[in-house]
Amino acid sequence: MKNTLLYEKEKIMTKENKSAVRFFAGAMIVLLISSILVWGFQTSWGEVKIDRVTLTGDNGEAISTLVYVPKTATNETPAPLIVIMHGRSNHGHSNDTWSMELARRGYVVLSPDLSGGGESAVSSRESQAIHVTEYANSLPYVIPDSINLIGYSAGTGTTLAVYDAMPEKVNSMCQVFGPFLQLISGGFAHVNTNFGLIKSTADQYDYDFLGDPQACLDWVTTESGIENLEVNTDYDRNGFLFRYAQIDGTLHQTGNISSATIKEIVKFETDITPPPVPRDLNDLAWLPQQLFSGICCVTMMFALAALLNLLMQSSFFKSAANKVPVKPARKGAGAWILDFLFTTIIPAAIFVPVSAYIMKWTGVGTGVEKILTSNNLNGIMGWLIVVALIGIVRMIIASSKRKKAGVASSMGTYALGADGETKINWSKPAKGFLLALIAIVFFGTWMWLMEAFMGIDYQVWNLSTYVQFSPDRITRAIPYIIIIFAVMFIGNMNQRILPSTGNEKKDMWIAVAVNSVMTASALLVVLLLQYGGSMIIGTGQTIIPQIDIWGTGVNKSCGALDFAFGYCYMMGGTTGVITYMYRKFGNIWVGTIPCAVFAGMYTLASFTLVF
């Protein structure tokens, strides 16, 4: 009898081990195949080579840039040169959709990481951009002294600085979604080259600084010196092409995935300099590239769960597992209404004021910026802390109710251990931390291999931001990781238990889906209201009025919401992983700690150098 039970136990363990291997292998196969497809569409199946070059600035700083080189660009047949400057909280890969479409047409494209973005050191954006442009102009396979500059958002101000440094070498400037930045940067009246200014009608920043589309048109008319300027019309300005394009159905944040914007950029560049590789304007590859990049982003979450599950099969990590505590299922309309109220409605309602004032209290000069180095990110973190405090109040109320009902609480009640345990077994969080280190090394290596051998990264409209780590970025991410862990820890201490369908596997994936959606729902609601509403209004106004925290009368946007796209995705995704691990191994330590580190490194570390 004893041998039979032992055999059955070993049989179950073997089955679990095989299942874990299959899950991990399946996730990695999907990730690899999708990555190859991203590479294929991004490089026209090898017709364009993507490299990363690290330059040394005047003061010895590292300046990193992506270089797209089509096969048609050689020393004998030099190609037109385009240099793209990214926005404030972006990096070189943020412009992958533009870079690939231009490189597919035979242009050599450089897309640098500028100060605080990607892999470059924190320094002057302008000096770094000038250095990269000078380097690009010296390449033997580009047409020299005929530089075409493209700037996006804050990058439009950067391109003005590059032009001022070398006006005689700039052939054209294409300024994407940046009329307000032209104003802040001193205007473009002095620019004497081919000039294209692309405006999104529903740009919130233009609205804050300049006003509605008509007010923007009036300002551009005055600045350009062209009487009766009309949108989407070409003009001769001092012997150069001038075009003010206006695009409907876009927001400031949608430039990289707006087909109309991409076409307008390609049209401007091809009108100025004929492409070495002629392609129809509608011949665009960015959509499938973004589709498979999105699949990669989502698969990364499954791969994280699969890796943690695989590691937990070893005897060393398996000792951190418990029998899953028995909890009453959450059911009934009242329970779900309360859950929706406290996880979605209240957090969504307080996002704008809380994040705005947190940004004010942690701004430059407060001293907080020495530890929490990204002001816009601070807005999200402060909001999350408030949401976590609401969760603590709910837990206290629930605990009081259990006590009155004579129900004893244990570690199992709070998803921290087995039923009946009254003390934390500290070996379990220690092993959770070790799991986190293994996961970060594994996926960090994976992302390095993807770029080193394919030149790709996983970017979907900055919903998901995966960048290479740097020592400074990691160091600055640590305080945010601690905040994220605290928030995830509190949020997952009351894991939702749903009524069983009788199918264990089905119950697992229903729980993962429900918890993921509920966790991301508050930010999703705010994003839909603000950006969806702004799209409908069409002038840059937002549904929820922004707060003028700086007292300037302009730029009322709290800014934090721009960073919320990526975190909305990461919050939902990591909660799904934590739910999966909890239902498999009976505690949240082995899921929460790795997920907090993963989210901190991949979603937040890329912003920690941009205040």
SSE diagram, text form:
Elements: H1 2-42, E1 48-56, E2 62-70, E3 79-85, H2 96-103, E4 108-112, H3 125-137, E5 142-152, H4 154-165, E6 170-176, H5 179-184, E7 194-200, H6 204-209, H7 213-224, E8 234-237, E9 240-247, H8 259-272, H9 286-311, H10 315-318, H11 333-361, H12 375-404, H13 427-454, H14 471-492, H15 504-537, H16 560-585, H17 589-604
Parallel strand pairs: 3-4, 3-5, 5-6, 6-7, 7-9
Antiparallel strand pairs: 1-2, 2-4, 8-9
Which key phrases capture this entry?
single chain, 611 residues, alpha/beta, nine-stranded mixed sheet, 17 helices, 54% helix
Explain what this protein looks like in three dimensions:
- With 611 residues, this protein is of the alpha/beta class.
- The chain has helices at 2-42, 96-103, 125-137, 154-165, 179-184, 204-209, 213-224, 259-272, 286-311, 315-318, 333-361, 375-404, 427-454, 471-492, 504-537, 560-585, 589-604, and strands at 48-56, 62-70, 79-85, 108-112, 142-152, 170-176, 194-200, 234-237, 240-247.
- A nine-stranded mixed β-sheet has the order 1-2-4-3-5-6-7-9-8, sandwiched between helices.
- Strand 1 and strand 2 form a beta hairpin.
- The chain contains 17 helices and nine strands.
